[in-house]
Amino acid sequence: MSSTLFVSVVLDQNLKKPLDYAVPEQWQRLVQVGMRVEVPLRSSLQKATIVALKETSNIPHLKEIARLLSAESALSDPLWKLAHWMAHYYAAPLQRVMKCFIPPSLRKEVRPKKEFLFFLALTKDEAITHIASLREKRPKQADLLEQLLHAPKGLPAAQLNSSPEALLKKKWIRREEKASSELSNEEFFPTYPKKLNEEQSTCLEKITASLRTEQFAAHLIQGVTGSGKTEVYLQAIQTTLDLGKSAIMLVPEISLTSQTIERFRSRFQEKIAIWHHRRSLGERTTAWNLLKNGQAQIVIGARSAIFCPAQKVGLIIVDEEHDASYKQSEEIPCYHGRDIAVMRAHIERATVLLGSATPSLESRYNADIGKYTLSKLNSRATSATIPKVSIIDMKQVYDRVGGFTHFSDPLIDALKLRLEAGEQTLLFLNRRGYHRLQMCSACRYIIKCPHCDLSLTFHKNSHELRCHLCDFSQNVPPLCPQCQSRETLQFKGFGTEHVERSLHALLPGVRTLRMDRDTTRQKESHEELYKQFRAHKADVLIGTQMIAKGFHFPSVTLVGVLNADAALHIPDFRSAEQLFQLITQVAGRSGRSELPGEVILQTFLPDHPLLKLAAAQDYEAFYQVELAERRLFQYPPFCHLVKITCSSPHPDKAQEEALQIHAQLQKQLSEGPLLLPVLPAGHPKIKDQYRFQFIIKCLKIKDLSSLLEQLTTDLNCKIDVDPINTFF
Ligand code: ADP
Ligand code: ZN
Ligand code: ZN
């Protein structure tokens, strides 16, 4: 065995390039790639990860590693491969990518949370005798004994009626460490696999076949809300466990509620680790260790769970695969959790399962061209029916009431009926609309770019309308281009709070809850609001995007969408898709149990083809229309986009940098990739940072990667490969 004399490490702390260190004699046979170490840097010790072993180094007088922090590599081979792939594909420094794989809990060496279970250490008869004799003088001890007498599986400290110390001393009870369990203190009623309907079993059979081959395979389940996708996931996970492998289940951040977790726990109990950033570092360390040593075979989490050290991964599920929260846009690396899932499955020779009622165009297209196997679930699994959807023309409503109102008469009538029947309503306010949108108040005309299929955005500073994809701009016209009215072009935008106030004015005594970014700032408030509504503490839940996802409220029979077309006004090639997904999803909240559901869509564009397709919940038709558009205008899935953003506290500097990179790329790129012009970002200033950006269109990211990687090392810019937003 040869010994390793030098290693390259990346520091946890932000430094762009790996550093070399010498390895002291006694560790030369121990060091491995992926090992956590401590190294001297200037006058302090820094934590780092070994990324390469070297026989030689051309840097003289290297310092030595100070300490080995782990006895083995923190990352398995497949995860290393994934990290390198990510660094390359997303043109991100490896050290930034490592941050995803080495979570803060590990970086800070947080100890796993220890838990103890308490058990009776007596026979039943002995216990009964002691309870009787303690009852008078030591009632608390008697209570505790009695409690444990009825808990043969033991109880965690938090559930004990009183302090266990005295009884422990007497050795009448004992405690056992339970460091390895993720089980919360809640009790779960076990559930059993349901007998699948025909669509479900056909789908599961295909998945099972893939799982057995132990080769990479990708499946897309396109199933209407309530069609029983989750039941298929559960049974596919069971098959995975039976094959001795583990499963990773990704859900959108917002759906990671106790309701979701319970559903999985009640089937698989303690084999599950839960992963999300709201958990404490200790809890995350526990989860990480459980997965690493193979005690947990299932991990459920939001996007970052895809980096968990699950062993022998056989199945990766991405529920609601179209959901934008899988994309990390704020920080480098700007990765997409779903795409990482597909790549990880590829590396691990696993099966990946993407599920959605409204698949992303990219995924559905991949199914069409044979990259993914498509299964459709077209009917609801229970007796629940697809809700009835109606479209209300708000322009007529405005005309009748002579001005603005949040509520049309049909919606008010429907609301009253629900109040009388004791049923619940969701009122959904689509806030995705850009607030400075230009719209004619007389004919609702929205001004669009003549060169792109996008609405123009009003720029207040320059007082002009501009397209954010091609930089076309024009002055605000004095007359509406459609109806020729004068001074009718207006800016739009209204909030949930206003809706709530208006509703109380219309229906005195109505009980409301509001769920939006303002009311859910606190850590658990989202879940708290949700529980209150489920417990029928309110008749109406008013909210934004947040209420659209994943919740199951059995007594909701009415969903009102107040401004169904708002998303159409964002100048982004994905706005139609996002609107379709959103409306289908909100509609899916209604009539989930025996009670039939109704959906009312209020809009100024009642004849908009997209809204009609959304109302009919006709994904197929929508997909065909939208795909044709994407093909025509060359957008994903027919190409890849890369967004490069430069920010600086000085607008000139941000713009200059962006222009410089743009020019540099223009020179280095031959034909093929297309560079769109440098523009201010849709949010041109965030937190005192001015932002300028441009988009590159290309057929293959591979052709761009090395060029982009160069950029990251010397220039201060953010590279977003496959951005979810091109505007903001
Ligand atoms: P989705 O994930 O597609 O929204 P779910 O898996 O949540 O759908 O299923 C909707 C409801 O139907 C759930 O209450 C679920 O328990 C039930 N269900 C699913 N599959 C079956 C089945 N094969 N037989 C009976 N009930 C089912
Ligand atoms: Zn007009
Ligand atoms: Zn344009």
Proportion of β residues?
15-25%
**What would you call the structural class?**
alpha/beta
Largest sheet: 7 strands, parallel
**CATH class wording of the largest domain:** Alpha Beta
Q: What number of domains?
A: 5
**Can you count the beta strands?**
31
Low-confidence stretches: 432-436
Principal-axes shape call: globular
Please identify which CATH superfamily of the largest domain we are dealing with: P-loop containing nucleotide triphosphate hydrolases
Give me the Rg, rounded.
Answer: 29 Å
Helix content, binned percent: 25-40%
List cofactors, ions and other ligands. adenosine-5'-diphosphate, zinc ion
CATH topology of the largest domain: Rossmann fold
Terminal CA distance: 54 Å
Known CATH architecture of the largest domain = 3-Layer(aba) Sandwich
**Order of strands across the main sheet:** 11-12-10-13-14-9-15
Q: Compute the average pLDDT.
A: 85
Number of contiguous helices: 21
Quickly describe the structure:
Helices cover 32% and strands 22% of the residues.
List keywords for this structure.
single chain, 728 residues, alpha/beta, Rossmann fold, 21 helices, binds adenosine-5'-diphosphate, binds zinc ion
Structural description of this entry:
The protein is an alpha/beta fold and 728 residues long. It has 5 domains: 1-74, 3-Layer(aba) Sandwich (GIY-YIG endonuclease), CATH 3.40.1440; 114-179; 198-377, P-loop containing nucleotide triphosphate hydrolases (Rossmann fold), CATH 3.40.50.300; 388-434 and 494-627, P-loop containing nucleotide triphosphate hydrolases (Rossmann fold, 3-Layer(aba) Sandwich), CATH 3.40.50; 640-721, Alpha-Beta Plaits, CATH 3.30.70. Helices cover 32% and strands 22% of the residues. The chain contains 21 helices and 31 strands. The strands form 7 sheets. The chain has a 7-stranded parallel beta sheet with strand order 11-12-10-13-14-9-15, with helices on both faces. A 6-stranded parallel beta sheet has the order 16-26-25-17-24-23, with helices on both faces. The chain has a 5-stranded antiparallel beta sheet with strand order 2-1-4-3-5, with helices on one face. Strand 25, helix 17 (575-587) and strand 26 form a beta-alpha-beta unit. The longest helix is centred in the C-terminal third of the chain and has 18 residues, at 651-668. The chain is globular. The model is unreliable at 432-436 (pLDDT under 50). Residues 449, 451-452, 454, 467, 469-470, 472 line the site of one zinc ion. Adenosine-5'-diphosphate binds at residues 194-197, 200, 223, 225-231, 381-382.
